[in-house]
């Protein structure tokens, strides 16, 4: 079989754009050349990959089967290219890091600056998304490393992934209005929280699901003043005094305008892990990123009692 990476890239681009003309333009090749790549690939595989209705290009069953395989093969080829550059002694590299929004505004924000200072020749690519999507991207080969909310999405469920539990952090209540915490010097219960005006995350957030489930179990209803926001917006609304919010302890880094109280009865926590593929050796650049993340979270845990390292797993 003479299938090559150029043919796979052509296939992948047509599948993504749904149009031969647009795919040819994106790849900077003539359309007849692109069509020849696809035709040759179909001949090699013995199956048609696209349904070619006028103005409507869709994948056949064979094309659907090939899509994740082609994506992973191209990602692996790119990974090998960067590894070879490192072995050749080039001061270059690339790290593709994924993280949920709460980690991007905390741990990742603390890591990126020092990492770039130490390794200025390394290209950094950040993917901000939910843990479920990040796990899929790791398996597909489009990420090197990802910080995952392991307590909600177990990386061990994907057999191809290796994961290291890093730390357990409490969910805390934050506010910019002193009156909200006037009767709560250090902590407050979920029942007491239910009486405060609360800003609630989008339904896509595990944080929202965990908090709402705790309310449901105790037959409580929160006083919601705004819902559906993303992490940055929630923190901004809290800073503007609109209400309180339940957030991970790590997001309080560099937020001097916010006060926090530990949540009790119940105490809600989550576990953060660092994951990567088992079958692909981390590049030196990715390995350096992994080590810097480990050092950073250890420093954060030493300063904040609401963050606890998972020492036994490190």
Features:
single chain; 314 residues; alpha/beta; Arc Repressor Mutant, subunit A; D-Maltodextrin-Binding Protein, domain 2; 3 domains; nine-stranded mixed β-sheet; two-stranded antiparallel sheet; 11 helices; 43% helix
Explain what the structure shows.
- With 314 residues, the chain is α/β, with parallel strands linked by helices.
- It has three domains: 5-79, Arc Repressor Mutant, subunit A (Orthogonal Bundle), CATH 1.10.10; 91-167 and 271-304, Periplasmic binding protein-like II (D-Maltodextrin-Binding Protein, domain 2), CATH 3.40.190.10; 169-270, D-Maltodextrin-Binding Protein, domain 2.
- The protein contains eleven helices and 13 strands.
- The strands form three sheets. Strands 3, 4, 5, 6, 7, 10, 11, 12 and 13 form a nine-stranded mixed β-sheet that branches. The protein has a two-stranded antiparallel ribbon with strand order 1-2.
- α1 (5-17) packs across α2 (20-27), α1 crosses α4 (61-87) and α2 (20-27) packs across α3 (31-45).
- The mean pLDDT is 87.
């Amino acid at each position: 079989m003479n299938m090559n990476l150029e043919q796979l890239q052509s296939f992948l681009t047509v599948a993504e754009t749904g149009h031969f003309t647009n795919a040819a333009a994106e790849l900077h090749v003539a359309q007849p050349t692109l069509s020849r790549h696809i035709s040759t690939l179909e001949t090699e595989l013995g199956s048609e990959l696209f349904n070619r209705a006028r103005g409507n290009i869709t994948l056949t069953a064979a094309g659907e089967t090939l899509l994740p395989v082609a994506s992973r093969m191209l990602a692996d080829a790119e990974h090998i290219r960067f590894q070879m550059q490192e072995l050749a002694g080039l001061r270059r590299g690339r790290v593709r890091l994924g993280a949920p929004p709460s980690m991007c505004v905390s741990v990742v924000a603390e890591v990126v600056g020092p990492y770039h200072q130490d390794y200025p020749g390394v290209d950094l690519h950040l993917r901000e998304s939910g843990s479920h999507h990040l796990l899929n991207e790791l398996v597909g080969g489009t990420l090197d490393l990802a910080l995952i909310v392991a307590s909600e999405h177990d990386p061990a469920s994907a057999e191809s992934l290796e994961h290291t539990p890093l730390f357990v952090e409490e969910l805390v209540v934050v506010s910019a209005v002193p009156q909200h915490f006037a009767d709560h010097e250090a902590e407050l219960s979920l029942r007491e929280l239910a009486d405060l005006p609360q800003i609630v995350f989008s339904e896509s957030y595990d944080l929202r699901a965990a908090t709402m489930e705790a309310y449901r179990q105790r037959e409580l209803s929160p006083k919601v003043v705004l819902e559906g926001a993303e992490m940055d917006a929630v923190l901004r609304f809290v800073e503007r005094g609109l209400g309180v919010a339940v957030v991970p302890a790590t997001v309080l880094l560099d937020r001097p305008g916010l006060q926090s109280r530990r949540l009790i009865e119940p105490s809600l926590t989550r576990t953060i892990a660092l994951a990567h593929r088992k079958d692909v050796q981390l590049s030196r650049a990715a390995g350096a990123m992994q080590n810097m993340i480990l050092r950073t979270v250890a420093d954060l845990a030493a300063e904040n009692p609401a963050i606890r390292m998972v020492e036994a797993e490190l």
